[in-house]
Specification:
Layout (H helix, E strand, L loop, with lengths): L1 H10 L13 H21 L3 H39 L3 H39 L5 H27 L1 H13 L13 E2 L2 H4 L5 H8 L3 E7 L6 E7 L15 E10 L7 E9 L5 E8 L2 H4 L7
Antiparallel strand pairs: 1-2, 2-3, 4-5, 5-6
Helix pairs in contact: 3-4, 4-5, 4-6
Length: about 300
């Protein structure tokens, strides 16, 4: 009740009915905000210049802490990705996970790191210039944001254009790491494209020809045990014939001619380079329904 009566005094309300139902509430609220504004102005007018400098230093420390937190967060993003990658026990799953997510995680980390650079530069320039206010604040903010933007843009372009070469070597190590036979414990032999067709079904061969999937066949020559691994062909990045960067991927497939019982069809694959935006199409043969079912045709 004492707090409520004090509020009544602040807003200048002297009625006896309920406060939130009284029509004078709007006028009383205006009086309250005016009194609050006067109180805040008088409070800041009593703050000494040394206290204002301490307040400015507090903001400098806060921005520096945000920069440190950004660096830690960018490192955590990379460590989180590496931990998720190691949890993929099967090498095929590890290959597909790295193909699909590694560049995206690194670009996210680079974006957070660029924000940290902006905060560090703002804090450093503010400490060099002293108490930043007025036009100095906008100047320091513009310079730090510009350098942070250029840093982030450069890192993201690096991951888009140059890093796929590094990723391709990393994926090759995962894919072609020697597999051990579960029966003998000895390394198995990876068959070439001609040898592996003997162990693949016609459907698998057609999927390889259409570049939808790619199959690897590992063979234990002693026991005859074979291991067939499937890789998503859409995750494979090709070298662009115009800019010669490994930045061209297929993004759309259109069936031009559907396969029939005895005649093959045509699948058109659309490719586009993410760097120079070069685009091209390739027509791929689709096996007939008889060939896909493994029936074949009589001469």
């Amino acid at each position: 009740m004492e707090a409520l009566s004090l509020l009544y005094q602040l807003v200048g309300y002297k009625g006896k009915t309920k406060f939130w139902r009284n029509p004078e509430i709007y006028r009383g609220f205006l009086v309250f905000t005016e009194n609050l504004q006067i109180y805040v102005v008088s409070l800041f007018s009593k703050i000494k210049e040394s206290d204002m400098k301490e307040l400015a230093n507090y903001w400098h420390v806060l921005i520096g802490d945000i920069g440190m937190a950004g660096v830690a967060l960018s490192l955590l993003v990379v460590l989180w990705y590496e931990a998720r990658l190691l949890t993929q026990r099967k090498l095929t799953l590890r290959y597909e996970y790295a193909s699909a997510y590694e560049v995206n995680f690194l670009k996210t980390s680079a974006f957070i790191f660029s924000i940290s650079i902006t905060c560090f530069l703002f804090d450093f320039m503010a400490r060099v210039l002293g108490m930043v206010q007025g036009y100095e604040f906008y100047f320091v903010a513009f310079i730090s944001m510009a350098i942070g933007f250029l840093t982030g843009y450069s890192l993201i372009q690096y991951f888009n254009v140059y890093y796929p070469y590094i990723l391709e070597r990393k994926l090759s190590k995962i894919r072609f790491k020697p597999r051990l036979s579960p029966t003998t414990g000895k390394p198995m032999r990876l068959l070439n494209e001609l040898e592996e067709d003997v162990y693949l079904t016609q459907e698998m061969i057609d999927q390889e020809n259409a570049m939808s999937y790619d199959f690897d066949v590992w063979l234990d020559d002693e026991t005859g045990f074979k291991l067939i691994e499937r890789y998503n062909g859409h995750l494979h990045v090709l070298i662009c014939p115009r800019c010669h960067f490994r930045t061209m991927k297929d993004y759309k497939e259109v069936i031009i001619e559907s396969p029939g019982a005895k005649h093959s069809g045509v699948l058109r694959k659309h490719y586009k380079c993410s760097y120079c935006e070069h685009a091209e199409t390739h027509d791929v043969k689709i096996a007939s329904l008889a060939e896909g079912a493994g029936l074949g045709t009589t001469p």
